[in-house]
Amino acid sequence: MPNRSLWICGIFAAELVLIVLAFQVLAPLECRLTTIEAACRGLRGAVLRALCLGALLGVYLWAVPPARADFARITGARTGGRGWAMLHLLAVVGLFLPLAVVAPDRLNAAFGALFPWLGAGAALAMAGGLFWLAAPRDWLGWLRPRAGLLAVITGVAMVLPDIAAAIGPLWYWDVLTEATFVAVALLLSLLAERVVIAPAAQVIGMDGFAVAVADSCSGVEGFALITAFMGIYAWLFRDGLRMGRYWAVVWPLALLASWLLNVLRIAALIHIGAFVSPALAANGFHSFAGWLFFILLAFAVLVAANRVAWLSRPVQAVAGAGAATGPGGATGGAPGAAMAAGPPPMAQDDTAARILPFIVFMLSGVVAQTFWAAPELAFPLQAVAMTAALWLVRRPLAQYLAAPDAVAVGAGLAVGLGWILLAPAAPPPAAALAALPTGLFAFWAAMRILGTALLVPVIEELFFRGYVQARLDDGTRARRALAIAISAGLFAALHGRFVEAALAGVVFSLLYLRRGRLADAIAAHATANALIAAMAAWRGDWALI
User: Fold this and answer.
1) Which of 100, 187, 230, 280 is the most buried (most CB within 10 A)?
2) Structural domain tally of the chain?
3) Could you tell me the residue range of the domain that residue 43 belongs to?
4) pTM higher than 0.85 for the full model?
5) Are residues 334 and 355 in the same domain?
6) Are residues 195 and 246 in the same domain?
7) First-to-last CA distance in the chain?
8) Whether residues 354 and 487 fall in one domain
9) Bridge-based pairing state of the strands 324-325 and 203-206
10) Run means of pLDDT, 10 residues per run, the chain, 545 residues
11) Are 486 and 533 found together in one domain?
């Protein structure tokens, strides 16, 4: 990449660090003390998502030489004018103005009024920065032939922090937490004389500053981040990578390195809290810097994997200039081959039809969790977003829709009945729903039922069976069983009741395989969801869905 794009991206990184230091470390801003806690946390989370997006785009540019060459060309042409640079810099300065004009002790109380200013400033800074790098028309030209893949990468980056939080309980093993505590204690004992250790409470500290090594401190975020980055890398380099060696050897070593880094991070946090600044340790270093270090570790692991010839396998050269250089110099065919062949627009792309609606579905859930104190109230907006995504890909989507099959409908009724019969005791009605006026509640309930019965089954089956399972299944028994297990496992991870959801996922997978029709899996899923939604409405137990 040209020097111009490198130093501009360096400026962006420095600005991001300054914003985190100003608002998360130095300023006494606590989201829980503001009047709009969810919006405050959403704005803070946007910084973390931007960090993840930048890192994953870096992996993409590394893996796909044609994309990297085109990026270098458009950013090196200096088509982004000085006006965009000025807009970006003014917007960044504007982000810091509230800290100068509002007294620190009033910052939390005034945050509700400051939020529109900060949100608009962040949006203008982002737009100005992008168009400073290259003009809008050049960005459109760069995005058009690779929009589907970049949409997937963007979606992963946006939900990665939430995925890390959601799958955290899967990694919460007492032995892992205890091992982390013992390792930190041993490390601090080697570095200092007076270390306070309370094993019963998992508390460790020194010189008046202590932390509790809870389950969330065991390094689970690092595990999720490493796994996500390695998955993206494996996907982009799939034609030149020995997957068995990569996942059986490199992945466990990467998790071990992540855990060791987490031990060092906690020890450093205690040192910073004891000798530098407790606020710095508890805020910026504990959250943002932790993610930054894990991302740097992920890059180090991928660079090392790329240089080990033992992990690469010989592949046939791909016609055209679009081949991606794989591990150890191998060539990854699919990303470059698709670009060389000139992929169709995203609205007509079959792969986009199976992936894009799911990304919109997940992102709308993130928005609901971030900006609504009661996220269930945002479902009508989620339904609108899902409908728009399905409408966008309606042409390739049409091939997956067909008349319901009797076997599929029967299987769906069995899945729905099992889900209802095995459901735990109904929780108390949500206060937010109970507070809605009758008309608004009726509208919400109708949208919830229609979305659950019609939209969600299509979106989830397109992704879990139509994309994940189909992508993994090569026709052999072992790969087919693995494809079913992975698609059903991912499907279950998205739902609160893992065992029942996994069994349902297996049923939908088998229906898909029975005649090779995704329509059968969609019909069964829709039938099950319609039965469950009807029962939820009859009982008033919306947690059943």
Assistant:
1) 230
2) 3
3) 1-166
4) no
5) no
6) yes
7) 49
8) yes
9) unpaired
10) 72 79 75 82 79 84 86 84 87 88 86 89 90 90 85 81 64 65 80 72 72 60 77 80 85 85 80 69 56 75 80 57 41 38 63 84 73 80 92 89 90 95 84 84 92 95 91 88 90 84 94 93 96 92 87
11) yes
